[in-house]
UniProtKB/TrEMBL annotation, chain A:
GO terms for cellular component: plasma membrane. It holds the Pfam family Cytochrom_C_asm. GO terms for molecular function: heme binding; heme transmembrane transporter activity; lyase activity. This is Heme lyase, CcmF subunit. GO terms for biological process: cytochrome complex assembly. Residues 314-640 form the Cytochrome c-type biogenesis protein CcmF C-terminal domain. Required for the biogenesis of c-type cytochromes. Possible subunit of a heme lyase. The keyword Glycoprotein does not apply. It comes from Mesorhizobium metallidurans STM 2683. Its main location: membrane. The keyword Signal does not apply. It is found in: Cell inner membrane.
UniProtKB/TrEMBL annotation, chain B:
It comes from Mesorhizobium metallidurans STM 2683. This is Cytochrome c-type biogenesis protein. It holds the Pfam family CcmH. Residues 12-151 form the CcmH/CycL/Ccl2/NrfF N-terminal domain. The chain crosses the membrane at residues 107-126.
Length: 663, 153
């Protein structure tokens, strides 16, 4: 019964209002009973949102087409998994998922925030409540997924075929966990501003939340990139599209936040800046939601003709971004600046990181918004596409990547640049070797490509050097070194892993962009095509029937050196009859870290088929690097210092739990 | 009213790039590889006017195909890259360029990254300087006098 869900959503809205107002008032007047209201209300609000989401998901799973939202985005013949993921494969449902995650995080603060100062906890929950209330109101007034239709249609209109993919099950939830995770950092910042002070528990709470949000956002972006790569059928992995930029900006700002929070936690410096970054990061998340949801990207005119949603989101942005920044301007001077340090120090390196990352964020922001603003103000239309970002974002990233290996090796307060440079000699030599090998032994390698490979190796070896130096490689006996390595704080491993992953991603990007090859051709059955040493033979087109689509599968045999078939690649053209949409299912064969990517085109009257073939060297490292970065964040989260209120001794698992029994 | 239901990034992307699997068709490819490479490079900088943020090299819209063929015709006719671009802009306006021109109108767009980097760097240096001077020039005249007195004793 979706009415139950609708009702639960209204209740959750009312509770969010209570959560926004009562604890805030209690904190101002010192009323501990009013402050204590926040916790239970947050938990119950979460439970109600779960109920609301669950009823919608059930309506989707059972194909209840009397619900307009289900009718528009589902079909009875869809496989069950796509029926369920279809719940958030549309505007209304995805907003419900957004608010579900928001209340989940709010409930986490309520449950685990017992060790926070009472007023801070009350204020944080109040800010979370305010965000929640606004989003509930947005859903209820402009994007209600629970509207019924009478009479109920017999059959649904099907989910957009491109979304009928496992990517939809993973990408949006991960992305939203990231977006919304930063709301906690935001709430903590606003709470600190309301109170006019930042205490030790603030930093200890904000950094792990930033890490969690960053980890999920990294995964969400990497997954989205891979999904677009294989689903859209032409092998691009990043398009500098406004929609992608919308998720990339919070990631860049969040990365800066992650690094400045380290300085704040360790050295209690950069407090005000960290606070501002936390506000900006979530503001960019909200802006991303606005850009994607309001339709302003599709066209400024579409936005003007149906402005209800857009205007609501715009007012929400003004309220939260404007409000928090005004509060910041008013209160930031009250916060005391912290520790002193020399420019050549870990702090100095992290400030450099922040300078470049925030400039990069602003570059992406202006590139995304400039055409919109120009058109709104002057009516002139210009385009800002990939060439702009490559020219501006690229040069900003290179110096940042060059200094990355220095950062973790520099000492706090005052570092010795020369000593660090000496320690990095091996990494530098490896990078130089990579440049030379690339330039001398790979055909057609430009100087740019060689330097790119060198940069990637510099990052990878720099991360390894960090671990080697900190475990005393070369200065102590191997067994001592090993035990030191194991005993290193998890956050040291986390840093090294994340920087290692960054190197892998860089290598993947350079490899794909600089050494990728492509062929467009018409091919007949039995003919072979050769690309970058791989030979394919076209075996023919075979019609096939899926649950809610029909397809023509083009089968290609990958030939070995002796001309015999070693494996098969299939690419298909699918027709989804309900929406009359065709999609291209790309055929991908992973060879080492590289991929052979094949995309099937139209069939000509003479029986030949158009085929586009790419060789994408090291392409999997782009996303593999993202996974390694996520692992780095997870490793960092396991650091004992970050486990708020963790018992002093780690509980050892009693008895061996067989791994297979774990979910 | 047909309304696009946008799930997530990829959904909008999918709408932008739907059916983009075949952009450049085999029959468009020029026989001269050098000329073809130039055509591809130019195509990547030209927007498909009926698509969203998609270059004509990536799009399979008819208009994109017409533009690709036009670019190739101009190249075959002996135009330089700049001449081809100028010709296309004269026909379609600056909107067609994915890389906006360096003009006064776009000064803010191109200037922001470098200005922000400089301003940020300047701010950091200034803050560090003022911090250091306050940290070292800590002794007031009275304190200095008291210190001198103590040292003299």
């Amino acid at each position: 019964m979706v009415e139950t869900g609708h009702f639960a959503l209204v209740l959750a809205f009312a509770l969010a209002l209570v959560q926004a107002l009562v604890p805030l008032f209690g904190a101002r007047t010192g009323n501990s009973r009013m402050m204590a209201v926040g916790g239970p209300v947050a938990v119950i609000g979460f439970a109600l949102t779960v109920l609301s989401f669950a009823t919608l998901a059930t309506a989707y799973a059972s194909s209840d087409f009397s619900v307009a939202n289900v009718w528009e985005n589902s079909h009875s013949l869809q496989p069950l998994i796509y029926k369920i993921t279809g719940t958030w494969g549309n505007h209304e449902g995805s907003m419900l998922l957004w608010v579900l995650i928001l209340t989940f995080f709010g409930a986490l603060v309520a449950v685990f925030g017992g060790n926070l100062p009472a007023t801070l906890r009350a204020n944080v929950l109040a800010v979370q409540g305010a965000i929640g209330a606004t989003f509930f109101l947005f859903i209820l007034t402009t994007s209600n997924p629970f509207i019924r239709m009478n009479p109920a249609p017999i059959e649904g209109r099907d989910l957009n075929p491109i979304l009928q993919d496992l990517g939809l099950a993973i990408h949006p939830p991960l992305l939203y966990l990231g977006y919304v995770g930063f709301s906690i950092c935001f709430s903590f910042s606003v709470a600190a501003l309301i109170e006019g002070r930042i205490d030790a528990s603030w930093a200890r709470w904000v950094r792990p939340w930033a890490l969690v949000a960053w980890m999920f956002l990294t995964g969400g972006i990497a997954m989205g990139s891979y999904w677009a790569y294989y689903e859209l059928g032409w092998g691009g992995f990043w398009f500098w599209d406004p929609v992608e930029n919308a998720s990339f900006m919070p990631w860049l700002a969040g990365t800066a936040l992650l690094h400045s929070a380290i300085v704040m936690e360790k050295r209690s410096a950069l407090k005000i800046w960290t606070l501002l970054l936390a506000i900006l990061t979530f503001s960019l998340s909200l802006l991303g939601t606005f850009l994607v949801r309001s339709g302003v990207l599709t066209s400024v005119h579409a936005f003007a003709t149906d402005p209800t949603r857009g205007v609501f989101i715009l007012s929400m942005l003004t309220l939260f971004i404007g409000g928090s920044l005004a509060l910041f301007a008013l209160r930031a001077s009250r916060l005391t600046a912290g520790g002193l340090f020399h420019p050549i120090s870990r702090e100095g390196a992290l400030i450099l990181n922040n300078l470049f990352l925030t400039t990069a964020t602003a570059t992406v922001l202006i590139g995304t918004l400039y055409p919109l603003a120009l058109e709104a103000i002057t009516g002139d239309k210009i385009s800002v596409g990939a060439p702009f970002f490559n020219l501006t974002f690229g040069p900003l990233m290179v110096p940042l990547l060059v200094v990355v290996p220095f950062g973790p090796l520099l000492a706090w307060k005052r570092g010795d640049l020369l000593a660090v440079a000496q320690r990095l000699m091996a990494a530098f030599a490896a990078a130089l070797l990579a440049v030379l090998v690339t330039a001398l032994f790979i055909d057609g390698a430009s100087a740019f490509a060689a330097l790119g490979v060198g940069l990637a190796f510099w990052l990878i070896c720099g991360a390894l050097t960090d671990l080697a130096v900190k475990s005393g490689f070369g200065t102590v006996a191997p067994d001592v070194m090993l035990s030191r390595l194991v005993g290193l704080p998890r956050s040291v491993f986390g840093t090294a892993l994340a920087h290692f992953g960054l190197g892998l991603t860089t290598l993947g990007i350079v490899g794909t962009l600089c050494f990728g090859t492509e062929k467009i051709l018409s091919i007949r059955v039995g003919e072979t095509v050769e690309l970058s040493g791989q030979t394919l033979r076209f075996e023919g087109l075979y019609p096939s029937q899926g649950p809610n689509y029909s397809e023509d599968r083009g089968r290609f045999a990958l030939l070995g050196a002796d001309g015999s078939s070693t494996s098969e690649i299939t690419s298909a053209k699918r027709l989804y009859p309900v929406r009359q949409m065709t999609t291209t299912e790309s055929g991908i064969k992973t060879i080492g870290f590289s991929q052979l990517y094949l995309s099937l085109g139209d069939q000509a009257t003479d029986g030949s088929v158009v085929v586009r073939l790419w060789w994408k060297p090291l392409v999997t490292l782009i996303w593999g690097g993202g996974l390694v970065m996520m692992a780095g964040a997870a490793m960092s989260l396991m650091d004992r210092r970050l486990r708020v209120g963790a018992p002093s001794r780690r509980r050892k698992a009693t008895g061996a739990v067989p791994a297979a029994s774990l979910p | 009213m047909t309304r696009f239901s946008l799930a997530a990034l990829v959904l909008l992307l999918s709408l932008l790039f739907a059916g983009a699997a075949f952009a450049v068709k085999p029959d468009e490819v020029l026989p001269d590889p050098a000329l073809e490479a130039r055509a591809r490079a130019l195509s990547e900088g030209l927007r498909c006017m009926v698509c969203q943020n998609q270059s004509i090299d990536e799009s399979d819209a008819d208009l994109a195909r017409d533009l690709r063929i036009l670019v190739r015709q101009r190249l075959v006719a002996g135009d330089s890259d700049q001449q081809v671009m100028d010709y296309i802009v004269s026909r379609y306006g600056e909107f067609v360029l994915l890389k906006p021109r360096f003009s006064l109108r776009n000064a803010l767009l191109w200037g922001t990254p470098i200005l922000l980097l400089l301003a940020g760097g300047f701010f950091i240096v200034l803050t560090a300087r003022s911090r250091r001077s306050t940290a070292t020039a800590a002794l007031s005249p009275e304190e200095q006098a008291a210190l001198d007195k103590m040292l003299a004793d």
